[in-house]
Amino acid sequence: MNLISVFDPEFLKYGAVLQGYDFSELISELNKTEYLPGKVTYIPDIDRMNKLSVSKMLSSNFYGGMPIQVGCCCGQNRKLNCLEYHRSDEVNVCATDVILLLAKQEELVDYKLDTKCVEAFFVPSGTAYVLRSSTLHYAPCQADDAEYFMIAVVLPKGTNMQKPDMLKINKEDELLWGKDKWLIAHKDAPEAREGAFVGLLGDNLQL
């Protein structure tokens, strides 16, 4: 795959590099998190990270006073497997170099997507970026020379937690995988075997 810099204008249709915040303390806390070899770990809400001054600033400034949760996604990953979206923007802060695999909701046809639409972006360590709510994304991949990836994940409080009990009334309801988390899986992804909606068509992209 062609690898594009997150600082390239091409990234602007998916999000933006976040400026003006000092994330050094958050990155220091991230580096205390242990990853599991061969797996991806996501911890949505980490108390010590929520208490940081920059986290409170993200709540008041970026999210306009909304309550947020600051967590961590880390581990080893080389495959696309799934794409997800939320109703809100997501902020990520990189403690390592990462590669993002992204697409746009507008490219979905009946909630299905040809994986040829997916683009790859390189993000250097220390960078913070925003993914717009219209951006399809999932766990990052580690860069070629990295042993693992590690990012902070900032979202409105409750996102990715247990999905609500509900009566399914339309096609999109089949995608709901967690609170404010709509998931589209490739047929070869572990999530598909767990019952996730299969809508990624073509190759399960691998770096």
Descriptive account of the structure:
There is one protein chain. By secondary structure, the protein is mainly beta. Helix content is 12%, strand content 34%. β15, α4 and β16 form a beta-alpha-beta unit. It is globular, with a radius of gyration of 16 Å.
Topology record:
Elements lengths: L2 E3 L9 E3 L6 H7 L9 E4 L3 H4 L2 H10 L5 E8 L6 E4 L4 E5 L3 E7 L8 E2 L4 E5 L4 E4 L3 E2 L4 E2 L6 E8 L19 E3 L2 E6 L3 H4 L4 E4 L6
Describe the largest sheet.
6 strands, antiparallel
Regions with pLDDT < 50 over 5+ consecutive residues?
Answer: none
How is the largest sheet built, in terms of strand order?
Answer: 2-10-6-13-4-3
Topology pattern, helix = H, strand = E: EEHEHHEEEEEEEEEEEEHE
Radius of gyration: 16 Å
- In total, the number of strands is 16
The fraction of residues assigned to DSSP E strands is 25-35%
N/C terminus separation: 8 Å
* Morphology: globular
The percent of residues in helical segments reads: 10-25%
List descriptors:
single chain, 207 residues, mainly beta, six-stranded antiparallel β-sheet, five-stranded mixed β-sheet, globular
